[in-house]
Amino acid sequence: MTQPVLELRRLRAGYGHRRILNDISLSVEAGEIVALLGRNGAGKSTTLLAIAGFIADVEGEILLDGRPLTGPAHQRARAGTGLVIKGRSLFGSLSVADNLRLCDLAPAALLDIFPELEPRLGVAAGQLSGGEQQMVAVARALLRRPRVVLLDELTFGLSPAMARRVVDAVVSQSRNEGIAVLAVEQHIHIAERIATHAAIVADGEVKLHLRRDELLARAHEVEAIYLGHALDV
């Protein structure tokens, strides 16, 4: 049996006295994309932040290639995690090229994933469109060759055409480079396009694990979880 790149075992986390995650257990293998689906407040983004080392109050196990993933965020990044959060985390006053150089990445490498950004390399990142900024943020994470990339609402605020472009790039890089991806998503149709599997989250717990082909077939169960209904599954 293949060892997962990322494995969460009964992950619990919160902020101060407020518990957000109660029992998150899942795994992601190399070249696999797992979508975390659920309504706002379900604990999806908190799961990513706990993995990446941005939450101190964490219990349970986080394993990367079978070894405990611990320590502050910068140590976890060096261990092989990449994170793309909403807001893209680019330095708006710096050029696209300089944003990449800060991560010891060659600007030309960006063009292997998004060649259409060549005319934008010298432009300040803050002057890019939202879709272009997301391209840069996603490429920056992928080009570091992490073991796992954590994506928080990959297509948030993007036009349908730009969303397809970014999604296709992530799927291609994951397959070709064997990168494991854990992607927070709210929309089932996006998850069905990008994911090999999905974990449906509610009240800080994984309520349902589904293959991609099951997402639409069992849409009523997924909808029930979104709406907070009890399930008999």
Q: How does the helix and strand content classify structurally?
A: alpha/beta
Number of strands: 10
Helix-strand string? EEEHEEHEHHHEHEHEEHH
How far the N terminus sits from the C terminus, by CA atoms, comes to 26 Å
Shape: globular
Number of helices: 9
The largest beta-sheet arranges its strands as: 6-7-8-3-9-10
Strand content: 25-35%
By CATH, the superfamily comes out as: P-loop containing nucleotide triphosphate hydrolases
**Largest sheet descriptor:** 6 strands, mixed
User: How many domain modules?
Assistant: 1
Task: Just give the CATH class.
Answer: Alpha Beta
**What percent of residues adopt helix (DSSP H or I)?**
25-40%
Kindly provide the radius of gyration, computed on alpha-carbon positions and rounded to a whole number of angstroms.
17 Å
CATH architecture tag: 3-Layer(aba) Sandwich
Poorly predicted residue ranges: 229-233
Mean pLDDT: 92
The name of the CATH topology is Rossmann fold
List keywords for this structure.
233 residues; alpha/beta; 6-stranded mixed sheet; 4-stranded antiparallel sheet; 9 helices; 10 strands; 27% strand; disordered C terminus
SSE map:
Layout: E1 6-15, E2 18-28, E3 33-37, H1 44-52, E4 57-64, E5 67-68, H2 73-79, E6 81-84, H3 96-101, H4 107-113, H5 130-143, E7 148-152, H6 160-177, E8 180-185, H7 188-194, E9 197-202, E10 205-211, H8 212-217, H9 219-227
